[in-house]
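User: I'm writing a short methods note and want a consistent example. For Hemerythrin-like domain-containing protein, I'll paste the sequence; you return only the structure tokens, no commentary, since I'll be parsing the reply automatically.
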Amino acid sequence: MSQTASTTRQSKAATPAKKAAKATKTAARTAAKSVAKTVAKAAPKSAAKTTAKTSQGKKSMPAAAVGQDAIALLKDDHKVVEKLFKEFEKAGDSAYAKKRKIVDQVITELTTHAYIEETLFYPTARKAAPETGEHVLESVEEHHVVAWMMSELKDLDAHDERFDAKMTVLMENVRHHVKEEEQEWFPEVRKAMSRGDLKELGAKMEAAKGKAPADPLKLRSAKS
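Assistant:
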């Protein structure tokens, strides 16, 4: 056998091996690219999850801690009282215990509400929006009338024939008072005060609720 023929056979024999090696390298490159793409796709998601977890770990400050808008706070109080009024109106004639409980709740809510209005909101409102001065003075006097009515209801037995009548008159007075405040001059105060100032005032009002007197007739002495 000549040397040339031998070399040719060896070359032919090596060809399949070279092809196999080349195929292996190609497969390896393809696999590497596939892994790289998978990692690249997963990376943003992983980062997003990490960011989300970090965000969840840092709890945002509750709205109450920042301070609720003073006018929004007063309107919320109005809604609470109106809900109690409706409960009283729906109670039956002989639901004495239920009506007694509702009236006691109303007295507590209105006394506290009047206290924070007269000690904090009204003085600030008059200073920020002087045109509301007359409205504020009227509101204070309306508070005084309601306070007398509440003091009478506080000591009146729910079985007394005057109980429902007094409560009805009280509700009429308060509803009139609320309508005037919310529709006639609260908007003027909102225009005159910045959002930040209203929130700061709201926080002070919320904190002052615990200082309100239990007796509605002590409102004026408590604020002086």
